[in-house]
Amino acid sequence: MRYLPHTSEDIAEMLKVAGAADLDDLFSSIPDDCRFKGELNLPEMTEWELNSHMADLASQTAVMPEYKVFIGAGSYNHYIPATIPYLINRSEISTAYTPYQPEISQGTLQTIFEYQTLTARLLGMETANASMYDGASALAEALLMAIRIEKGKKKTVAVSSLVHPMYRKAVETYFTPTDFKIVELPYLADGTTDISGLEKIGDLAAVAVQSPNFFGCIENIKSASDKAHNLNALCVTCFTEPLAFGLIKNPGSQGADIVCGEGQSMGIPQSFGGPGLGMFASLNKYVRSMPGRLIGQTTDLDGKRGFVLTLATREQHIRREKATSNICSNQGLCATMSAMYMASIGQTGIRQLAQINHDKTEYLKSELEKAGMQIPFKRAVFNEFVVKFPQGFETKYKELIKNKIVPGIPLESYYPDLKDHYLLCATETISKSDMDELVKEVKS
Amino acid sequence: MKQSSGTRGLIMNEPLLWEKGKKGRCGISIPKSDVKSSSMDKEFLGDPPDFPDLSEVDVVRHYTRMSQWNFGVDTGMYPLGSCTMKYNPKINEKQAALPGFAGAHPMLPPELSQGTLKLMYDLEKYLCEITGMNAATLQPAAGAHGELTAMLLFHACLKKRGQKRNKILIPDTAHGTNPASASLCGFKSIPAASNEQGVLSPETVATLMDEDTAGIMVTNPNTLGLFEENIKKIAEIVHNKGGLVYCDGANLNAVMGIVKMGSIGIDAIHLNLHKTFSTPHGGGGPGAGPVCVTKELEPFLPVPRAVKKGDAYELKYDYPDTIGRIHAFYGNFGILIRAYSYILSMGKNLKTASQYAVLSANYIKQQLKPVLHLPYDRPCMHECVFTDKFQEPYKITTLDMVKRLMDYGFHPPTIYFPLVVSGAIMIEPTDTESKENIDEFIQAFKNIVKEACETPELLKNAPSITKVRRLDEAAAARKPCLCG
C-alpha cells in the first residue's frame, strides 16, 4: 500500500526493538476471546477502478448545468470563485489540526479570528465563534444557550413554524432528553411569523425566528426582539441564506441577542447537504455561555501580535463534568472558505451580488404570476418564494424532471395545508433563459 | 544525528484583512444581470456589511501567507496522540470534488440522487463490517456529535423500556468530551477510576453500576493507549444491571480487523472518519462521527436513513422510535466520500494499517523509555504516554520539551492529557510514518532530553525559529479580544 511506507526490513527491525515476535504478537494484551480471527470482507480497488466507480456514482446525480435546479430550502447554488478551491487545497490549510500549538498554527488562528470578525460584521453582532456543525445544530445550541443564560429558570422556547423544518426537527431531538419545552408559533397570511401569542406563554426563555424564513419571506425581527425583550426573553434569530445581509438589515441591528445559521452560501459546495458551516454570534455579555471554540488576540514573548484558542475553561478538556459545550471538532475548513469568500466579495461586491439575486427572484416570481400561477405570500422575499401551482401539478413536476428541470420542492409534506405549493429559488447562477424555459414549461 | 528538518525560511508578515485593501476593489467577478433591477422594500433595506474591499491578488497572497504560518500533516510528522493525524490521501480529494457530488442538492428527488444514496448505503455497510455492529447512522458531524447521538439513543432506548436512569459511568481514561455529551442528555457523570494497570477493573464497575445508571462510556483502546482487556466482563456487568455500553471509537485506528466491537459487548460506537479514515481536518474540522449500533438500538437511529428498495435507493423516514434528526440534512457528506474512497483503496489492508500503527507506537515507547518516564510499562496500542517526571530536577516541563520539538521540525504530541497522568506526553506516530521519520523524531526527543540538563534555557526559550514565540494565553483569556 502506497500510504504505508514500512518495508519488511523495517518491520523486522522495529519488531525486534518492540520485543514482539511478529505483528500478531503486538496485540497480546487483547484477550483471545476479544480477537477477530477472520478477514475483513471489504471490496478493494486500484486507483483506476476507484476513479471509474466514483465517476459512475457521481454521474447519477442531477446537477447544474445539465439540470436546471430551482431548489434552495437551506442549500444554495452560488458561484464559487476559482481562488477558493485553489487556496483551500493548500495542504498547510487543509491538513492542519485544531490549533493547539499556536506558534506553528498562526495561519489557522489569524484566519479564524478574521472569520469571527467578518461574521460578526455580517450579522451586526459583537462576537462570533469559530463555527458550529451546521445551521440546524447551531440553532439547537443557541436555544440551549438561551436557557443557560437564564440559569435554567425558564424552560420554554418559542420557535417560529417558518424556521427550516429540518432545523426544528434537530431542535426537538436535542430537547427530547431535557425538561425544556418548545412552543411552535403559527404563521400569518403574509408568510411571516405570528408572534401575537407570545404573552400567553409563561416561562419563556427565548423566541426563535428565521429571516429570510423558510418561505423566503423577510421577517420583522425588530418587533420580534422588542416583544421578546418586553417579556424578559432573548431573541434568537437564524438564517439559511447569509447573502441576504448584503441587501437587507442584519439581525444585530434589529435587536437580536443570539444569531445563528447556515453559511454554505458563501463559497462552500453544496455536497448533498454537508459539510456546511454553522455560523454563531451573540452579544459580548453572553460570550462565556457560548458553545464552541473561540480564537482571541494576544501577544508573544517579543510583544508581537498573535492569536490563540481562548476561554477554554468552558470546554470539556478542562472541566469535563462541568463543561457547557461538547463541541471539539467544528467546521474550521468551511469557516475558512467562507472567510475567503467574504474577503473576496467585499462590501461593494456583496451588495451587488445580493441585488442580482433579488432581481432574479423578482423576475421569476413576476413571470410565473403573469403565467397564471398564484403567489400566496405577498411579503418581500430574498432568493426564494412560494408558488401555488394548479391542482395536479405532480404530473407536470415529473415531466419537468424528465426534461431536466427541477422546479423547486413541494411543501405539503412540511406544511400539510399547503397542497400544490412549491418553494422555488433563483440565484445568480440561474439565467433569464433558464427561468423563461421553466415558465414556458409550467404554462404549457 | 543527521540534519534536523526544522529551519528558517522567508516568512512574510501579513496584516489583518481589514488593515489592507481599498474601497472599490473586488476580488470576485460579479455576473452581468440579464433581468431588470428590482428594488428591495425600504422597510427591510439595510447597509451592506463592513467588509474590506480587496483585489483577487490581495486575497490570494493573504491566504498563501497564512498557509505558510501553519504546520500540517503534509508539512511533517504530527504525532498528536488521540487525534490520529495520519496522511490524507490526495485521491480522496479528487473524488469529493467531482461535480456530481460537490454540486448535489440535498433535497433532490431520490431518482435524481441515486449515486449519493448508494454511497451512503454502502458506507454504512462497510462501517458495520469493520466494527461488527448491525446498523449505522452517518449523520453526526463530528466525534463529539457522535457521542451525543449515542447518548440520545441510550436515552430513547431506556425510555422505551420504561426506565428513567440518570447516571452514566465514565472512566478517567475516557475522552474529554464524553461527560459533556452525557450531560446534554441529562445524565450525571460518575467517574470510574482505572486500576494500577491503566485499565478498568470489573470490580470497580460492579461497585458503581446500579439500577439508576444508564450505562458506561468507555474509550477503547483508552487514552493511555491501552486496550481495556476486561471489556467483556465489564459489558456483562453493565448489561446484567440493565445498562448499555458505549464505546468512544476515536482510537479505532489501533484495532481495525483485529477487534470487532460488536462481539465484545459494545452496544454503540462512534467512529471519527477524520482520524481513522484519513480525511483532512482543516484546522479543526469538518469531521464526521458515524455511530454504529446493535440490533436493539437500530430502531432509534436518526432519520432519514438510506435504504435499498429493489434496485433503487431512497431515504426512509418511517421509523416510529427514531430520535429524530441531529443534522439539517444527512451529515457531512463530503467527508463521507473521502472515507468511503479510503476504505475502497485499502480493503482488508485496513488491518495492516492498524498493525503498523501499533508497531510504530511500541517502537517509540521502547526507544524513549530510557529517557522519559513511562507511567504504564505495558504493551501499548497505537499511542504511548510518557511524563516529565525525569526532567523535574532540572525544572523542565512537558511544555518546555514539546515547544523545543518545533525547532527540530516536528509538531508536538498531545500534552497534559489524559488528566490521569501528571505532565502527560501522548505520542501517536500512526501507520503512515516511515521508520526513518520515526527514528528522526526519537533522536530529536533524545537530544531535547539531553539539552534539558545541559542547556535548559534552550528549552525555556523554545520555540526559537517559529514566526511567533510563546504566546500569552492567560492575557487572551483575561481580556478577551475575539473580534477585530
TrEMBL record, chain A:
The keyword Oxidoreductase applies. It is an enzyme of class 1 (oxidoreductase). Belongs to the GcvP family. N-terminal subunit subfamily. It catalyses: N(6)-[(R)-lipoyl]-L-lysyl-[glycine-cleavage complex H protein] + glycine + H(+) = N(6)-[(R)-S(8)-aminomethyldihydrolipoyl]-L-lysyl-[glycine-cleavage complex H protein] + CO2. This is Probable glycine dehydrogenase (decarboxylating) subunit 1. Keywords: Oxidoreductase. The keyword Translocase does not apply. GO terms for molecular function: glycine dehydrogenase (decarboxylating) activity. Pfam families: GDC-P (PF02347). GO terms for biological process: glycine decarboxylation via glycine cleavage system; nucleoside metabolic process. The glycine cleavage system catalyzes the degradation of glycine. The P protein binds the alpha-amino group of glycine through its pyridoxal phosphate cofactor; CO(2) is released and the remaining methylamine moiety is then transferred to the lipoamide cofactor of the H protein. NCBIfam families: PRK00451.1 (NF001696). It comes from the Bacteria. The glycine cleavage system is composed of four proteins: P, T, L and H. In this organism, the P 'protein' is a heterodimer of two subunits. Its EC number is 1.4.4.2. Residues 1-440 form the Glycine cleavage system P-protein N-terminal domain. PANTHER family: GLYCINE CLEAVAGE SYSTEM P-PROTEIN, GLYCINE DEHYDROGENASE (DECARBOXYLATING).
TrEMBL record, chain B:
Residues 91-302 form the Glycine cleavage system P-protein N-terminal domain. One of its GO terms (biological process) is glycine decarboxylation via glycine cleavage system. InterPro entries: GDC-P_C (IPR049316), GDC-P_N (IPR049315), GDC_P (IPR020581), PyrdxlP-dep_Trfase (IPR015424), PyrdxlP-dep_Trfase_major (IPR015421), PyrdxlP-dep_Trfase_small (IPR015422). Residues 353-454 form the Glycine dehydrogenase C-terminal domain. Its cofactor is pyridoxal 5'-phosphate. It catalyses: N(6)-[(R)-lipoyl]-L-lysyl-[glycine-cleavage complex H protein] + glycine + H(+) = N(6)-[(R)-S(8)-aminomethyldihydrolipoyl]-L-lysyl-[glycine-cleavage complex H protein] + CO2. One of its GO terms (molecular function) is glycine binding. Pfam families: GcvP2_C, GDC-P. Its EC number is 1.4.4.2. The keyword Nucleus does not apply. Keywords: Oxidoreductase, Pyridoxal phosphate. The keyword Oxidoreductase applies. GO terms for cellular component: cytosol; glycine cleavage complex. The glycine cleavage system catalyzes the degradation of glycine. The P protein binds the alpha-amino group of glycine through its pyridoxal phosphate cofactor; CO(2) is released and the remaining methylamine moiety is then transferred to the lipoamide cofactor of the H protein. PANTHER family: GLYCINE DEHYDROGENASE (DECARBOXYLATING), MITOCHONDRIAL, GLYCINE DEHYDROGENASE, DECARBOXYLATING. This is glycine dehydrogenase (aminomethyl-transferring). It comes from Desulfonema limicola.
